[in-house]
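Hi C.,

You asked whether I'd gotten around to modeling the 185-residue construct. I have! Everything is below, sequence then structure, no commentary in between.
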Amino acid sequence: MNKINFILEDFKNVQDLIKFTDQKASIILLVYSFVIKALIDFSSNVTYVNPFTFKHSTGTFLSVVTFIVGATLVIVLLVQLYYMLFKIIKPRLSKHFSHQDHSVFYFEHIARMKKADFVTQYDDINEDRMFNEILDQLYEVSRILSRKTANLRVAVNFFYLSLILMVVYIGLISILCSHAGFLGR
């Protein structure tokens, strides 16, 4: 295998990893839709009251903690959605090419060229320049993959945190509802 074929194969592998990362983010978004639906369904059946109307401080404490956990959960979900939509799934463009560059391997440069100029540059490219342009593209897509996977790790951590908060929130709501009579509401 010559160097150009090796680099092109490596480039293809990195592109596949980027697609795989995007698919993971999409799956997490799908799971989040179920989490948000469950949160909305569960919360819609709850009657919210002023926590300071409870006769016992336990009710007030549980009510305030439930509110804090619920608010934190909503914030975590919003941050998570931001990460998924704008840091992972949103297409990433090159950051290391200038507008004066005219690479025949980079779609933005090709789109800015006239068709005749593109065909001429493509026909005139020598093996050394081809090698360097493919290397440049490999570097760019590797950087994009690195950013996406770092953001995916953050998103997965937020995902676990949101699941924990969801369980705690549901548990607190259940405790509040089951002890409403005991708490002297």
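If it helps when you're writing up: The longest helix spans residues 127-178.

Thanks,
B.
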